[in-house]
Predict the structure of Polyisoprenoid diphosphate/phosphate phosphohydrolase PLPP6.
Amino acid sequence: MPSPRSSRERRAGGSSSGRPEFLSLVSQRSPIPPDSPSRRKESGISAAAPMPEEDCMKLNPSFLGIALSSLLAIDLWASKRLGVCAGEGSTWGSARPLMKVIEISGHGIPWLLGTFYGLCQSDSSAAREVLLNLLFALLLDLVMVAVVKGIVKRPRPTHNKMDMFVTISVDKYSFPSGHATRAALVCRFVLRHLVLAIPLRVLMVLWVLIVSVSRVMLGRHNMTDVLFGLLLGYMLYSVVEYCWLSPLSAPALFALWSH
Ligand SMILES: CC(C)=CCC/C(C)=C/CC/C(C)=C/CC/C(C)=C/COP(=O)(O)O
């Protein structure tokens, strides 16, 4: 048996849209009397009787849609204003070389190569365990960011100059920021597994903040790319911790690195 909503939509000319702005247009052609309860419901005028849950749900996607578009508009506008190092001629264009050094400090290549080198050089099994897990974390991060970038396909900001040091194909997309995920992941990893003096721990957190802010200042990302990247990196560390590789759980891997 057809639901009351679907039969109403058929009467209204076959529209399947549940969005109120479309329903108000549709209702001009509807044979339902203007003061009927269902007409009041469609036009959003509150009736004495409580609205059925089905009709309340119709308003939410539209509200959510407006809220999301507003957030994205604010994000684009603010990110463009903060992109003060996006080009040599930008307001803070002279700071661009420094921003690019910060960019390299969070790039995948130095982190992967450094960890790989450390793994080959390490002679203690405890160090090997930590470095092997760091390598796993960095590779997992690379894969996850590539997957999300490939799904979301959000283009980089229009003011970005694509002059980045070594990129892969999905790096033409900006959501999420790979630098932000890596910085958050590495920071959590290092704070958990390295015994560092307090000033160094503070420096590590500051580095995450500087790398994150520099992504927007360089014009590489919108703010939401960076915020989501930080969140993703933070969560990825929990995955690494959960899958922690040890000589017991992955003996073959550890046999590879034992001298
Ligand atoms: C050395 C080992 C063990 C493996 C190398 C594997 C490999 C394919 C590395 C690629 C590293 C690479 C090119 C990463 C891209 C980093 C990057 C430019 C991310 C984009 O960051 P974003 O913040 O602009 O999104």
Q: What stands out?
A: The pocket of L4R3MLFD is lined by residues 107-109, 112-113, 116, 164, 166-168, 171, 177-179, 215, 220 (CB under 6 Å). Residues 49 and 253 are 67 Å apart (CA to CA). The radius of gyration is 26 Å. Residues 53-82 form the longest helix (30 residues).
